[in-house]
Specification:
Blueprint: H1 2-24, E1 35-37, E2 41-45, E3 50-57, E4 63-68, E5 74-76, E6 80-83, E7 88-94, E8 102-111, E9 114-123, E10 127-129, E11 141-145, E12 148-152, E13 164-168, E14 173-177, E15 188-192, E16 195-199, E17 202-203, E18 208-209, E19 213-217, E20 222-225, E21 237-241, E22 244-248, E23 263-267, E24 272-276, E25 287-291, E26 294-298, E27 301-302, E28 305-306, E29 310-314, E30 319-323, E31 334-338, E32 341-345, E33 358-362, E34 367-371, E35 382-386, E36 389-393, E37 409-412
Parallel strand pairs: 2-9
Antiparallel strand pairs: 1-3, 3-7, 4-6, 4-8, 5-7, 8-9, 10-37, 11-12, 12-13, 13-14, 15-16, 16-19, 17-18, 19-20, 21-22, 22-23, 23-24, 25-26, 26-29, 27-28, 29-30, 31-32, 32-33, 33-34, 35-36, 36-37
């Protein structure tokens, strides 16, 4: 009987030793609460006012946490709690109704499972820097398709480019896409029926003006030939209204006086270009945007004269009308639409001085308003609007073209 009791006690003792040894050999299962947070920093802006902070317990037991030291421009759905198997989600809201500027703060999370500091930034600058375009260039085309911006062709180092790069504003990242089949600069681009049309342009050191049209299909990442323009055009504008493409203005050559060109309309149902009424002021290097089915054209240059004209084309009546002119003569700039207003950005004049001007045009009142200048002076840039922000891409600040073109990307929030 005593022997059996002794053996039982030995078995129990050995089992306890094994249990303790095994528990010490299981580092993957912490015995105590352990603080875990989903991010180390958060950035808020005019169009990014809400974010989720997720606190979880990657250890055992119950995690008790508390947030202190938040900035006065930030509100939290709650500032303390307990986390066991599930995570605590804290909704953070930034107060964007403040003066322009950049505000910083630090959230301090204290817990029985460790402490952590989270950086918070509120950027209320009108212009902010974004990821640079991989291929620096100017005199290129850009357009938006499915909330992504495509930078197409252009000029760099006395060479016409075929390179195409796609920018995703949501991730602030660039991706290389299939190049043009025909390198070109000073071309135009627009999106129609889920595809991009790259229209006209010039090629090479001799600037041979082209009538080439290529069509990009993002589903296959490939370019195919389109119906050529009736005549070669460079420094033109291209817009889409009611399922048709309009090629407006431009230069048919860079030697001798410029000739007045018709407005060309492309109907994809017939596959044909047709002539429409000419722009009253013949020009190239001008801006163009569509609002309420009408095409607004701005500025430009022709026969060594810079223009401040604003002329509006109505495709429904094939007619033009004059509007309030711009505040200055201007060309090689860009225009984009946000909330029914048109923004003219950058450009140059006959003295080849690059501009940083940003001007807002209200078509309903036919008035102009000066806005905060672009941080970087440049001309020959491209600009596109996505989700209420205008992205100004590339360009040049050197009229002599001795410096390389720019890769700068700056975003403007009207």
């Amino acid at each position: 009987m005593k022997t059996k009791i002794f053996l039982c006690r030995c078995v129990i003792f050995i089992s306890l030793i094994c249990l303790l040894t095994c528990s010490k050999e299981s580092p993957d299962e912490p015995e105590n609460p352990q603080l875990n947070v989903n991010a180390d920093s958060y950035t808020f802006a005019k169009n990014v006012i809400t974010a989720s902070l997720i606190i979880s317990n990657s250890g055992a037991g119950e995690l008790s946490w508390e947030i202190t030291g938040k900035a006065d421009w930030l509100t939290l759905s709650k500032s303390s709690g307990n986390a066991t198997d599930s995570a605590d989600t804290i909704i953070m809201n930034a107060d964007v109704n403040r003066n322009k500027g950049t505000y910083t703060g630090m959230l301090k999370i204290n817990s029985n499972g460790g402490n952590k500091e989270i950086s918070t930034v509120l950027n209320l600058e009108t212009w902010i820097s974004r990821a640079k375009v991989p291929t620096s260039r100017y005199a290129f085309a850009a357009c938006v398709l499915d909330n992504k911006i495509y930078a197409i062709g252009g000029w760099k180092g006395y060479e016409s480019l075929a390179v195409v790069e796609e920018y995703d504003p949501a991730t602030d990242a660039w991706t290389r896409r299939s190049p043009l089949q025909n390198p070109r600069d000073r071309l135009a681009a627009c999106a129609l029926d889920g595809k991009i049309y790259a229209i006209g342009g010039a090629y090479g050191i001799d600037q041979i003006v082209k009538s080439t049209v290529e069509i990009y299909d993002p589903m296959t990442d490939s370019w195919s030939p389109g119906v050529p323009l009736p005549t070669g055009l460079a420094l033109l504008a291209a817009c889409v209204v009611e399922g048709k493409i309009y090629a407006i203005g431009g230069a048919s050559g860079f030697s001798g006086p410029a000739t007045k060109l018709p407005t060309y309309e492309f109907d994809p149902s017939t596959g044909q270009w047709s002539e429409k009424k000419s722009m009253p002021t013949h020009r190239c290097g001008h801006g163009a945007c569509v609002i309420d089915g009408k095409i607004f054209t701005f500025g430009g240059v022709g026969n060594m004269v810079a223009f401040d004209q604003v002329e509006v084309y109505d495709p429904g009546t094939d007619s033009w009308e004059q509007r309030q002119p711009m505040a200055m003569q201007r060309f090689y700039f860009e225009t984009s639409v946000v909330d029914g207003k048109i923004y003219a950005i950058g450009g140059s004049n006959l003295h080849k001085i690059p501009f940083d001007y940003t001007d807002e045009y209200n078509p309903s009142t036919d008035t102009w308003l000066s806005r905060e200048p672009m941080p970087t002076k440049r001309y020959g840039l491209s600009a596109c609007a996505v989700n209420g922000q205008i992205f100004a891409i590339g360009g040049s600040d050197d009229a002599a073209r001795e410096s390389p073109p720019m890769s700068t990307v700056e975003a403007f929030t009207p």
